[in-house]
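FYI - complex with protoporphyrin IX containing FE, inputs then prediction.
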Amino acid sequence: MLVALLHILIPLLIASVVYYYGINRILGLPPGPPPLPLIGNMLSFKWDLDRVLLDWKARYGRIFTVWLPFPMVVIGDYEVLQKHVVKDGDVFLAKRNAEQLNEIMLGGPYGLVFEDNKIVKEQRKFALKSLHEVGFGSAALEDVVHHNAIEVVNRWRKSEGAAVDVTDNIMKAISNVVWSIIFGDNVDFDSEMVTKFRQLQQSGLPLMGGPFMMFIEYVPALRKLDFLFGSPIKRLQAIMDETNTMLKEAIETTKKSFNPSADLPRCYVEAFLREMKKNEEAGKPAGNFHPQQMQMSAATLWGAGVETTVSTLRLCCLELVNHPDVQLKLQKEIDDVIGERRIRLDDQKVLPYTCAFLQEIYRIGHVLPINFLRQTTQDTEIEGMSIAAGTTVLPQFSMVHYDPKEFERPDYFCPERHIDNGQFVKDPRITPFSIGKRNCLGEPLARMEIFVLFATFIQKCHFSTVGKVPPPVTFVTNFGRSVHPFTVKIDPRN
Ligand code: HEM
């Protein structure tokens, strides 16, 4: 009996040791922390993973493998990211999409974030062209953003010493801008629909980011045990049902005022409807320009475009009350250079300290704790190691932002590090919108919104602590990353 047991146990033990120390080598992957069978390195997993990843980078090299719970090659080194993910863009174009999550949330690989790798080039190209047509980079869109900025500060200026959570008004301003880009309508600043839409998204984020969602990608059969884990799938589906009903209504409203013979589309949905019509009239097959792709592109533009920008602006306000000296410098710069006239995007050239502040915000405030996964499209070589086609890659640019080898005291908030001889120094190592051919599609809009809104906040308002001690700068991390709720006091300036 004992001998039989040993016959089973000894090979099992040997297999476990070989797996633990040798599985990466056997699979031709770069070295990394030894993974446990089934759960890989999940015991070390937390959403704010950069510090753990930086430790592993120090131990295993500039690229390394982690199992979360499946294997992925992590690249979190500035030079390696540039040399490979940027320069060999096509090799890192494809994403390793979360198939189960895609099916639960989008009904399949549609939209503009997790779409089928075969349609990425076409849909990105179309989206970039359409977003440009509907106003990216235009003075008209800047006017809309400035109008919303003034609405926010006017409300804050009436707060009369009360404790203010800045989230609500920032969210309304950003939502209105993004909504008009997607659906063409300028909704009321206090639109309940927009607030509801954001609430739905907010309640979905923690569910999307739970460990259960990671495991169902690995073992899809686990989906049936949803009820044992607090029913995250069922709850996500309910949120998506409600979201989809609202999206359909918004698209129907856009269709009612859609004028196909206008020179340019008013919004993304109109651009999509024009493309569908063009194909139909030319007798061409609809291809990927079908209602599901339109609806999911709208959903993903909304999902990607609101919370990210709101989080960044919230962080700006929180850092202001944590660094009153920095706020005074910002106020002085804007008073001296701009005075009372309207802020314009072009003022970036004459506001070096404001640009330095925002670059420091972009360094510490990445909005995705773990970047989206890519998948190599062909065999390649990184750091002398062969990486096979189809390997999952995590281009974790935020590791660079927090790497003490790149930035002295990386946890310390210091706009001055971006100033040299009174001039702002743009830092190519800071890439909050990611890198390569899947970088953020909304970067020009987001940068413009953040600059115009933030500079207007400084011009018109003074932010201070409610009590004596400012709220800490700590992050809630799940699928997204943003600072914990906080309140401030806001007094009018000028
Ligand atoms: C401060 C604001 C924002 C930040 C920091 C940000 C950051 C990011 C990051 C890190 C990614 C992932 C890139 C990757 O997979 O490597 C991303 C993707 C994306 N973002 Fe943004 N984003 C912001 C605002 C926006 C806005 C305003 C829009 C559009 C209205 C937008 C649309 C998208 C889309 C469509 C993708 C997916 C691109 C693709 O997979 O090909 N984002 N963003």
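The CA atoms of residues 179 and 185 lie 7 Å apart. The first strand starts at residue 63 and ends at 67.
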